[in-house]
Design goal:
Mean pLDDT: 95
Largest sheet: 5 strands, mixed
Number of helices: 3
Distance between the termini: 6 Å
Shape: globular
Length: about 110
Amino acid sequence: NLKFNPILRKGDGNSINRETMRQRAKEMKGNLGLVDGENLRIQMNNSKKEFEHLQGKYIVLPGTLLRYSVGGLHVAYLYWFGGSWGFIFDWLDDDWDGRGLFACSE
């Protein structure tokens, strides 16, 4: 079972940096990677009603880092695209805001 926990904590302000985000993911047992994310994406799309409360949020998958050909590191996250859940790959160096969630093992 997974529990969806916010990335931000009280006192974080509007966002956190990549080091804080990745460390927090490990601490919270929310360090899922792409394989986990694909399984979660399928589950979320097969049970859309169960996950509709997460629309407008994104679920970070910090357990897998991808290096693009120009050298930058990216991380995947799941996002609601108005009809289904899908992947977005974003710069790891971006700030991580209050819409972000970790999918954490209970």
